[in-house]
Amino acid sequence: MKNLICIACGIFLLVTIQSQAQNKKNQSTMEKKTIYQFKVEDLSGKQFDFASLKGKKIMIVNTASKCGLTPQYKDLEAIYKLYKNKNFIIVGFPANNFASQEPGTNKEIETFCQLNYGVTFPMMSKISVKGSDMHKVYQFLTQKLKNGLQDSEVEWNFQKYLINEKGELVKVIKPQTLPTDPEIVNWIKG
């Protein structure tokens, strides 16, 4: 009888230890990851490391040159100039996922942005923000399992993702919402 009790206690102890180990594993996979894990290329092919933005609020926006929302470049640039020295940055990702509204090459996109809107905020190489070839940055931004906040879908060009000073996703803003909207400005200033 004592042996049977000892065996039962041993099995219980083993199951408890395995359960605790699994809980720790689950917690580590569910911990919020940050944008700082990513390195991308800018429009001119230079490496851009998100880790260099630690301590800044970041707005990530997918852009397009031939969209009805393209004039938002003007507002993006204005808000960037106003707050860039106050721990805020905008990072643009051109994408051709919606009605082929960003058909240009990286060089053509860079020229368009500078000539038409005087864009000075960092613009990355053209990527995909939807579908099977979705870029890893956008997998992070759109999947709760990866960002710890929420699942979302990029609805159209100029959708905005707000990242706090710790590199964590905190809010998703609809494409039609202007970058100068009080909701965004208050977040930047807050």
Architecture overview:
This protein is an alpha+beta fold. Helix content is 38%, strand content 15%. The protein has six helices and six strands. It has helices at residues 2-30, 72-83, 106-117, 136-142, 144-147, 182-189, and strands at residues 39-41, 47-49, 57-63, 88-94, 160-163, 169-173. It has a four-stranded mixed β-sheet, covered by helices on one side. A two-stranded antiparallel ribbon has the order 1-2. The longest helix is centred in the first third of the chain and has 29 residues, at 2-30. The termini are far apart. The model has no long low-confidence stretch (mean pLDDT 90).
Q: How would you briefly describe this protein structure?
A:
The chain has 190 residues and is of the alpha+beta class. It has helices at 2-30, 72-83, 106-117, 136-142, 144-147, 182-189; strands at 39-41, 47-49, 57-63, 88-94, 160-163, 169-173. Strand 5 (160-163) and strand 6 (169-173) form a beta hairpin.
Oligomer: single chain
| Percentage beta strand | 15-25%
Number of strands: 6
| Helix coverage percent | 25-40%
Biggest sheet details: 4 strands, mixed
State the shape.
globular
Strands side by side in the biggest sheet: 4-3-5-6
Element pattern in H and E: HEEEHEHHHEEH
Instruction: Extract low-pLDDT stretches.
Output: none
- Overall pLDDT score: 90
Number of DSSP helical runs: 6
Distance between the termini: 67 Å
Briefly note the structural class of the backbone: alpha+beta
Measured on Cα atoms, how large is the radius of gyration?
A: 22 Å
